[in-house]
Specification:
Elements lengths: L2 E5 L3 H13 L3 E6 L10 H4 L4 E5 L1 E2 L2 E2 L4 H7 L4 E6 L4 H7 L4 E4 L4 H20 L2
Parallel strand pairs: 1-2, 1-3, 3-6, 6-7
Antiparallel strand pairs: 4-5
Length: 128
């Protein structure tokens, strides 16, 4: 079971991610639905999370621009960036994303990505 933060501005996508991940046994600890939610101290939002799923486009703002602040708030956080913009794929990697998916992608892929990121998170926690 993982603790997941969803950073996504489309309510339908949030609902689908939430349903998919909760059915897989994960807990959604926070949903950030606009860039304003990423401004300021991110410690409260990301400190207890294992994985963040971050949309590249939050209105007019790039979600990946907040990746360094998310890492600062929680260095062990694993980050999956989801984007429909092919140009954003390299930018997400350069900003520190652990995994990148081009939208749309199958929900099975979301579950598998989260499981893989949790395994990495757990390995780092145990020092293995």
């Amino acid at each position: 079971m993982g603790r997941i933060v969803i950073v996504e501005d489309e309510a339908d996508i949030v609902s689908i991610y939430r349903m998919t991940l909760e059915r897989a046994g994960h807990v959604i600890v926070a949903v950030v639905s606009e860039a304003a939610g990423l401004a300021g101290d991110l410690t409260t939002t990301f400190a207890g999370a294992d994985v963040a799923i971050v949309d590249e486009r939050l209105g007019e703002v790039s979600g990946t621009s907040y990746l360094p602040a998310m890492r600062a708030a929680n260095p062990a956080l694993r980050i999956l960036v989801a984007t429909a913009d092919p140009e954003a794929l390299q930018r997400a990697r350069a900003m520190g994303a652990d995994e990148i998916r081009k939208k749309p992608f199958p929900l099975r892929q979301l579950r598998e990505d989260v499981e893989r990121l949790l395994a990495i998170h757990d390995l780092e926690d145990t020092g293995s």
